[in-house]
Each structure stands twice: as structure tokens, then as C-alpha cells.
Amino acid sequence: DRQQLMRVYGALLWSLGKTMSSPEVVRVYVGSFWEEQLQTLDNADLFEKEEKDLMRDLAILPRQSAVRKINELVKRIRKVKTLA
User: Fold this and answer.
1) Can you tell me the distance from the alpha carbon of 51 to that of 30, in angstroms, rounded to the nearest whole number?
2) N or C, which end of the chain is more exposed by having fewer CB within 10 Å?
3) Is the pLDDT at 52 greater than 90, yes or no?
4) CB burial readout 31-52, b (16+ within 10 A) else e
């Protein structure tokens, strides 16, 4: 049932928001990541789109990591300049 899935998803994000101290929005991928056929096809389209998003996001992780490291370095340089 799609409505029940969305309720669980919302509750999960709300609970995660309390435990994570990151200013970034948490992304949770919804899907069925096993090899068996789906028992019901109600959410098959949603699961396919989520799996594509996950694979795309995994593919760009190395680039994001490099950008994050550069941003941290710039932050440290600015802090050193301020304290000097």
C-alpha cells in the first residue's frame, strides 16, 4: 500500500532528523533490493526510480568527496587568516 509506505517513510525521516546533527537533508532510498520478484507491483515504478537515483548518487560520490575536501581546506585557510 503506497499510503502506508509514505507514512513509514515520513516517520523514518522524522526520527532520523532527531538523531543526526547534519545541516544537510538526509536522503533515504526506498526500494526492494533483493533478487526475487516483487510480490505486488504497486510500487514497482517507484522502486525502479529510486534504484536509478541510488546508482547515480553512488557514481558521483568520488567527485562530491573531492569537492567536500576542497571546501574544508578553504574553511581552514580562512580560519588561519583570521587568527594570523
Assistant:
1) 8
2) C
3) yes
4) ebeeeeeeeeeebeeebeebee
> Averaged over 6-15, what is the pLDDT?
90
Alpha carbon distance 39, 32 (integer Å) = 11
Tell me the C-alpha distance between 83 and 1, whole Å.
57
* Residues 19 and 4: beta-carbon distance below 8 Å: no
Task: Work out the average pLDDT over 35-39.
Answer: 86
Euclidean distance between CA atoms 30 and 12, whole angstroms: 11
User: Which grid coordinates are listed for 39?
Assistant: 510480490
Lowest mean pLDDT among 20-29, 39-48, 72-81: 20-29
Q: C-alpha grid cell for residue 68?
A: 567536500
Q: Say if residues 52 and 46 touch (Cβ distance below 8 Å).
A: no
